[in-house]
Design a protein that fits this description.
Blueprint: E1 6-9, E2 15-19, E3 44-48, E4 53-57, E5 93-97, E6 104-105, E7 123-125, E8 127-134, H1 148-166, E9 173-180, E10 192-198, H2 203-219, H3 223-234, E11 238-241, E12 245-248, E13 257-263, H4 275-293, E14 302-307, E15 321-326, H5 339-344, H6 353-362
Parallel strand pairs: 6-8
Antiparallel strand pairs: 1-2, 2-5, 3-4, 3-7, 5-8, 8-10, 9-10, 9-14, 11-12, 12-13, 13-15, 14-15
């Protein structure tokens, strides 16, 4: 059983948490950096009346740290308290509030988005929470290279932070994710991910839940569990499967590389998995990431998205799953989201899902 994280406070008041393996402990030191005050909101929400979607305007993120040399990485341990976001000589897993947050202010007060029925330009404070999760103190590693215990600790940190952010007033959705590789746009190469607490359901989540509720009304069953059963029956897109989890390339994959991992029983979040199932998820997730890194001669750039839901009536049909996607369509070519995808949201995939699944099975 993982012990409670060790809390710490950074120089500008942001929260830092240390998650430690059994028998390990971190020993943070005071953060001595002269950081600017973080109490003033740095971004806002603006409503797009043409799509019915909220857009986050976060101009201050233009100043975020951009591809520093390895000896100046802000995610490596900083035992002096003057060089790093993590002022400690070592750590296992660390989570802290993002210094260059898109959303902030959650936890300070109650929050409700304004009604969207009017005709005026509509904006709101950027209520929410953005956190960074460092998977390891090793600057040169990756999630796929973590040993089981370390990866399992990351899963527990995801569970802890999901529960904490969900409990904050005004948070409607918690999203854990990883961007890996410069081709994806990553500016810090240290193995890490992020956790967002949104004040609204994201557009894709809304669409997926809308389809799931419609499926329930038509069929009386859950959309996601039906899809898993149908993929297993078809077989041609299955990548890996065991007693607890199934990984497959979806029938209508949008991306050249796209693998979804689902539990074999319906749960809405990582927190609803029992300890044995969390072990199983960790093994399956590592297996998929390791296969993806063997797909080409170089490690695969990817985005990993952890989809979780609450038992709120609007989210009740949502099923926990992870999607790992990549824009690499061959060993030497990238898939760019050009006009059809970016302007019209009409995806064109250059790789047949069945071929992608077969390649990953062979690995």
């Amino acid at each position: 059983m993982t012990s409670a994280p060790t809390p710490w406070t950074l120089a500008d008041g942001r929260d830092l948490l240390f998650f430690s393996l059994p028998g390990h402990s971190s020993h943070p030191v005071p953060d001595r950096r002269p950081l600017p005050d973080q109490s003033v909101a740095q971004s806002e929400l603006r409503f797009d009346r043409t799509t019915g979607q909220w857009v986050i305007i976060a101009a201050s993120r233009q100043d975020r740290t951009y591809k520093p040399p390895p000896d100046q990485c802000p995610l490596c341990p900083g035992p002096s308290g003057t060089t790093s976001e993590i002022p400690a000589a070592d750590y296992d897993v660390a989570v802290f509030e993002n210094r260059f947050a898109s959303l902030s202010g959650a936890g300070d007060a109650a929050f409700r988005l304004p009604p969207t029925g009017g005709d005026a330009f509509l904006s709101a404070p950027s209520h929410g929470r953005c956190e960074v999760i460092c998977f390891s103190s090793d600057h040169t590693g990756s999630f796929a290279q973590l040993d089981f215990a370390q990866a399992r600790l990351v899963v527990e940190a995801w569970v802890h932070r999901t529960a904490a952010l969900t409990a904050m007033p005004g948070i409607a959705q918690v999203f854990c994710f990883e961007n890996r590789g410069e081709e994806i746009g990553v500016t810090l190469t240290h193995p890490h991910g992020q956790i967002y607490g949104y004040p609204y359901l994201t557009p894709r989540t809304e669409r997926m839940l809308r389809e799931a509720h419609a499926h329930r009304e038509r069929r009386g069953t859950n959309l996601f569990t039906d899809i898993v059963e149908q993929e297993v029956a078809a077989g041609s897109r299955i990548v890996a499967r065991d007693d607890m989890f199934t990984a497959f390339v979806p029938f209508a994959a949008r991306w050249p590389v796209e693998v979804h991992i689902y539990p074999n029983r319906f749960v809405r979040s990582l927190a609803e998995l029992d300890p044995v199932e969390r072990d199983g998820f960790t093994r399956m997730y590592l297996t998929i990431l390791q296969r993806l890194d063997r797909l080409y001669s170089l490690p695969l750039p990817y985005m990993a998205a952890v989809h979780q839901y609450t038992d709120d009536e609007t989210q009740r049909e949502g099923c926990f799953h992870v999607e790992v996607i990549s824009t690499r369509r061959s060993a030497t070519k990238l898939k760019y989201l050009a006009s059809s995808e970016s302007a019209m949201e009409a995806f064109i995939n250059d790789v047949a899902p069945e071929s992608a699944a077969a390649a990953l099975r062979r690995l």
